[in-house]
Design a protein that fits this description.
Oligomer: homodimer
Number of domains of chain A: 2
Structural class of chain A: alpha+beta
Order of helices and strands of chain A: HEHHEHHEEEHEEEHHEEHHHHHH
Distance between the termini of chain A: 30 Å
Helix content of chain A: 40-55%
CATH topology of the largest domain in chain A: Creatine Kinase, Chain A, domain 2
Chain lengths: 347, 347
């Protein structure tokens, strides 16, 4: 299942979006619930089944979604669920407790809808670069199209109702994934994360909630969804993301001016290890790939395409390696295949 | 001074000697003192001067020595003294207190004589591989030739007299330099070093007394020089060196049988770093070169000649880098030049 995705040029990783050097991707997520149904945590098995069926029907009628997949998570293998997580299409919760849960995903993977996760619907649109406006247009279209078939739980004076009170109101979460090796290397990242928290922004790692900032990736998103409009949420995020991008650029300039030899050393060593290792973990590979990416950005490394590195960030992950091999692999086998893949792609 | 040595194919590093894979070099050292002169630590300035003069005269008359150098250490710059230490031709003591001290060294660097170190004469012969017999023949020739011109301090019932009682008797120290990455990687080295100490052998690092086992090199030598003959000293060393060589070979076989992926990984990473780093310390470079050397021994790395690596063990050192550049270099400059040299030699 999902073998098509393996050859997908993951749109949000193609670096074709605007300013995609530092701002890798933009993401919007809407939480929606269906009127007269309890939230998934309180819904009965048959109520969840009914919701899934309604969405299965709806899926084939909505133009923007119909080229893609509708799947029941309990019919998807554990490996495939892991694979979907690695592609940022589902959450850990969707892997661990697949019963009664579902997923709709467009063929280009830009649009995905988790069904019966925390809310009945979690609509996500993910695009390349600093691209919140276009992302907003797309998610609006999807939302409107669905609302024609499903009555949403909505109160005019509050907004959309959600399982968790922190999402009530717009139920919108907007985020950008930023690659910030400059701020990490100059040790300025700590203060910036502190400041973001004070400004009510949330920071996460490459793989969502609870993950570390692997590979110097930071996902920055709004915390507040109630009492402000969707446009304000997006504008606020845009403002803060631009400031961080400027900070990252100034950190990179500082590194080039004051620490060029050690910067070049770190970047070339990263490439040396990626091109030579015979065993490598995901975590180690991500940290070297991050430096390599920085090296390409700064013109220190030439002849390696940014989209090759971007793609590696995703395909070196455990489930991807196993999908490519077509079988389950033990820890050392994965480290071995991962190293071989990195060598062949970075020749 | 000594610029000729820079282009010398350091004989004991050419790997042309027997069994030079694991047993890199063989070394004999004789301590000799001149009758009716106090040991250097108690000799006056003018007595040391006289000894130096006698050796200067003698040097040009001894066939085996005369193509080479006779130098007074206080006429040699600090950098050049450091350079001679790095080539295993003098001791730290000869660097720190050069007054009244001298050195004779043959053009091929196999024969060297420190003058007025702990003893009046410290005659050293250093050859490639497991080669104690030939080394013994050479040092005997040198010793006999000198004794024709200088009366040695010698008592028939004791043997040669030396400044330190541990050297009295034969005044012979025999040693082999072994490259033991297999025993280090399999963590067997500790027990072997303990056993060697019990058997009255001394173990030192690549750069003599007090140095760590950098680059997995271990110099093993006899402790006892009194009460046994020169032949017994050499035979005992040969016996123990053969046993350690066998242990090293069995450790390498174990690594290949049981840990091949991680062994190959370590070796290829070492090469990756050596070929890509822009800044590297001597210590780090030695540890990677050791693994690379092992990789060549085991046929994992092809196309890199053993003598290239052997030569790098010596020329990446601080004084060598500065001699090659023809000027003093700061720490980071040396790390930078060292990395550049490694990249160019290991292309």
């Amino acid at each position: 299942m999902f073998e098509e995705f393996l050859s997908n040029e993951r749109w949000w990783l193609t670096v074709k979006g605007p300013e995609a050097k530092i701002i890798i991707s933009s993401r919007l997520r809407l939480a929606r619930n269906i009127e007269d149904f309890p939230f998934p945590s309180r819904a009965t098995r048959s109520q969840k089944k009914e919701i899934l069926e309604r969405l299965e029907n709806l899926w084939s009628k909505v133009e923007i979604l119909k080229l893609g997949f509708f799947v029941r998570m309990d019919e998807v293998s554990f490996l495939d669920r892991q694979f979907l997580l690695e592609r940022h299409l589902i959450s850990q919760e969707h892997i661990n407790n697949p019963q009664g849960k579902g997923l709709i995903v467009s063929l280009d993977e830009r649009i995905s809808i988790m069904i019966n996760e925390e809310d009945h619907l979690r609509i996500q649109v993910l695009t390349s670069g600093f691209n919140l406006e276009e992302t907003w247009e797309i998610i609006n279209k999807v939302d409107n199209a669905i609302s024609r078939f499903l009555p949403y739980a909505f109160l005019p004076e509050i907004g959309y109702l959600t399982a968790c009170p922190t999402n009530v109101g717009t139920a919108l979460r907007a985020s950008c994934m930023l690659h910030l090796p400059g701020l990490v290397l100059t040790k300025r990242i700590g203060k910036i994360l502190e400041l973001l928290a004070k400004l009510s922004f949330t920071t996460r790692g490459l793989f969502g909630e609870g993950t570390q900032a692997l590979g110097n990736f930071f996902q920055i998103s709004n915390q507040v969804s109630l009492g402000i409009s969707e446009e304000e949420i997006i504008d606020n995020l845009c403002g803060v993301v631009k400031q961080i991008r400027d900070q990252e650029e100034s950190a990179r300039n500082l590194l080039l001016r004051r620490h060029k030899p050690s910067l070049e050393d770190s970047i070339w060593r990263a490439l040396g290890i990626l091109r030579n290792a015979r065993l490598i973990t995901t975590k180690e590979a991500l940290s070297h790939l991050s430096l390599l990416y920085l090296g390409v950005d700064l013109g220190i490394i030439k002849g390696i395409k940014r989209e090759v590195i971007n793609n590696l960030f995703i395909v070196i992950q455990p489930a991807h390696l196993q999908k490519m091999e077509g079988k389950a692999l033990g820890d050392q086998e994965r480290d071995y295949k991962r190293a071989a893949l990195l060598r062949s792609k970075l020749k």
